[in-house]
Amino acid sequence: xxxxxxxxxxxxxxxxxxxxxxxxxxxxxxxxxxxxxxxxxxxxxxxxxxxxxxxxxxxxxxxxxxxxxxxxxxxxxxxxxxxxxxxxxxxxxxxxxxxxxxxxxxxxxxxxxxxxxxxxxxxxxxxxxxxxxxxxxxxxxxxxxxxxxxxxxxxxxxxxxxxxxxxxxxxxxxxxxxxxxxxxxxxxxxxxxxxxxxxxxxxxxxxxxxxxxxxxxxxxxxxxxxxxxxxxxxxxxxxxxxxxxxxxxxxxxxxxxxxxxxxxxxxxxxxxxxxxxxxxxxxxxxxxxxxxxxxxxxxxxxxxxxxxxxxxxxxxxxxxxxxxxxxxxxxxxxxxxxxxxxxxxxxxxxxxxxxxxxxxxxxxxxxxxxxxxxxxxxxxxxxxxxxxxxxxxxxxxxxxxxxxxxxxxxxxxxxxxxxxxxxxxxxxxxxxxxxxxxxxxxxxxxxxxxxxxxxxxxxxxxxxxxxxxxxxxxxxxxxxxxxxxxxxxxxxx
Length: 493
Hints:
This protein is an alpha/beta fold.
């Protein structure tokens, strides 16, 4: 209901005359979803890539009036989906004034509301609860108790009200009863201790509330949404079997299935200021490479695939990419700059904290693993833009990289310093014989800024395919011929 239509409705008598009919929260969400669908509107705005998979399953569960669980690896928008479900609640609902459990004025549950209505009748005051106040979220941790979720006897309340311990009014209600007629979300359900999970059985099935020795039968009206990692849910056995059985619908989430969808999510969620967008140009090539880093991580044998690689990795990486370019711009006193391939190595700190490593990865070190992922992303993406250097060797036609490689073989080097200004960056790339011509021949219609990115991509790509030597400097990279790089390694050894 909309409060604007009920500003004069302040007691139960007025509510009855208005024609109010009680409705369960699941019926409420079902009716509102039906209206959304009829109007061609999307209650889950901002959720990308789930249009044909997760969202239809979610809508089916809501239409079925189900409690549900969202199963997915980290960073798959499970919590965000749950929070968006409040859009399916009525804007306002009436509750008995002063009720701890949001009693419906025409279907009261608590002793407080029953006594109040018995005493005041139709003059019993009501208040209006907005949908934003009807959402409760609890992160499941091992220290969560039954009292936290369900409730317990409150000796202070018993003493202050001078009531016996067997009086219902001495109960201090937990989060779930206080979420009556609301949406209640438990994140990471497997982390709840088994005995705590058992306390949810009756609430999910019969709606009963059990607190200590009280004979309570409160048919609570709650829409439950749980989230969990599928590895925890299916293999570790952290969710007790009877609780699994009582959760009506199980919905699997997933990572974006295409680079384009992944880019859409990353650019949508990254916090980039207007000033950064105006002063820093980030080519689509760099956006693609960031997504390739995440894809490489999700396939790497050094990364624990059971934990997953969160979409937050690419979001943080894009923010760091902008900041790396911004730092260079500020240090050089420039007003504008363009992000570079070498700036990707400035996002290492966004990767190391976002991936869980297996034993072999721990031995390798998180920093080395992150650098390896960036290198593999460049290697994979390079062959999407340019001929594969390994296949070119075997082909009968000429090697398009021959002029570039020969130039380095003649003893020339290029220092791609991350803090060098745009002019020095341009001059360094233009000195490489054949580099500009190669890019121009393959991408004649590309803009000058994109050609520079492509030129740098060629150098990094050839280095990843062992056609050139790439040495990491304190402030950038040095490209030289492969043999000198090998001799340098031997000398260092």
